[in-house]
Amino acid sequence: MKFSGNRRIVAAGAVAALVVGVPALATAADQHQDNTKAASKAIVGGKARNVILLIGDGMGDSEITIARNYQVGAAGRLSMDKLPLTGAYTTYAVQKNNPKLPDYVTDSAASGTGWATGTKTYNGAISVDPKGKPLPTILELAKKAGYRTGDVTTAELQDATPAVLGSHVVSRDCKGPQSMTACPANAKENKGAGSIAEQLVQTKPDVLLGGGKQYFDQTVQGGKYKTLTVLQQAQVSGYHIVTDLAGLTKAPANKPILGAFAPNNMDLEWTGPQPTPNGTPAATCAVNTARDAKQPHLVDMAKKAISVLDKQTQDSKKGFFLQIEGASIDKQDHAANPCGQVGETVAFDKAVDEALKYQKDHPDTLVVVTADHAHTSQIVEAGTKTTGATATLRTHDGADMTISYATAPLGTDQQHTGTEVRIAAGGPQAANVLGVTNQTDLFYTMRRALGVS
């Protein structure tokens, strides 16, 4: 048997041996506290010294509920459930050829551009408006105002969500200097700003951690750093380069850090049963033994990023802005992989917990937890079939939970959905997430908290 936190993870064949105590549901239901004073206390205006934004990619309410049921039970609470103020925000993009009309189902590029810049754009755009004009981002504005900055992900650093903070290209596919077919005007050899990888290095967040090493290994095609790889460009620019957990642990805080821990996306945390049109027997998830042990987990990267940025700002009037993404919740929802999806959500929740621990000692920190868009997985009646494919997991409660994937044929990418998603926050300006807001409103909430313009 293997363990992840306090939750027992067992191989699918050991289900019969699993004994889990069911939480005292009646007791939990009888705790009717009056939260009026707590809510009033949580509403704090003014400026924040730090902002930590945590993005669960594809983490809609369904994905949160699935992870909660599995990990801590229906009456339990994840760390992300404990933020004091919660609302919902709309996620729609706009149509490229007619920006006055909504595109109801966003991708991560358009949604990320929304909170990074405060402007709606078309699917595939990275911090440019519908006409392709670059838009200043919250990270760029924070950096210009004297804040330290960080960008952390379990995806390629050139993937949409981390890319929107420090690059501007007309297509999210333009990840490296030798991958610019969709963005010729942005290419260095055409006097553009370069690929996503090049621009991230040029924007120079103080902490840049994730996957995507293959794009940093591509050769720059024009400008000052022509013939160097992007990673070499980063070194020349002053970055301390790390490629594994040991290197990350030892990395000093007095230099910007670029960590590239995998050629593409980082490895998954969990594995488990794959859905079928006829369902599966109830099973539990297992730790992914194929995961590269040299790769840091998201919580490792979050801890290091927070620690480094905190040390870098100890003697400064300005604090830091940090974005942390749990990227493969989305990717495993696309793949209809329930244990992959749940494992990534649980790993993301550990990063949330780390941010909340820091906030407890630094109450002038705004912490925001949200998603870029919703996704396909749905909890359906246990053991039933749907028009899609289902798998059944045995949860922390000792009960069976059947998950359905039905937005695309099995074996093809499941689709995003266009519903609003949760946004929760605590700290200065957190009250601005209450009610139903627009994804672009988050940019203004963070900008106001940092006092930048």
- State the CATH topology: Alkaline Phosphatase, subunit A
* Overall structural domain count: 1
The CATH homologous superfamily corresponds to: Alkaline Phosphatase, subunit A
CATH architectural arrangement: 3-Layer(aba) Sandwich
State the name of the first-level CATH class.
Answer: Alpha Beta
Binned, the helix content reads: 25-40%
Contiguous uncertain segments of 5+ residues: 1-27
Distance between the terminal alpha carbons, to the nearest Å? 53 Å
Main sheet characteristics: 10 strands, mixed
CA radius of gyration is 21 Å
Number of strands: 19
Mean pLDDT: 93
Structure classification? alpha/beta
Layout of helices and strands, plus pairs?
Blueprint: E1 2-4, E2 7-9, H1 25-29, H2 36-42, E3 50-56, H3 61-71, E4 85-90, E5 93-94, E6 102-103, H4 108-117, H5 138-144, E7 148-156, H6 160-163, H7 196-203, E8 207-211, H8 213-216, H9 230-236, E9 240-242, H10 245-250, E10 257-260, E11 270-271, E12 286-287, H11 298-312, E13 320-326, H12 328-334, H13 338-361, E14 365-371, E15 378-380, E16 389-394, E17 400-405, E18 421-426, E19 436-438, H14 441-450
Parallel strand pairs: 3-13, 3-14, 4-19, 7-8, 7-13, 8-10, 9-10
Antiparallel strand pairs: 1-2, 4-18, 5-6, 11-12, 14-18, 15-17, 16-17
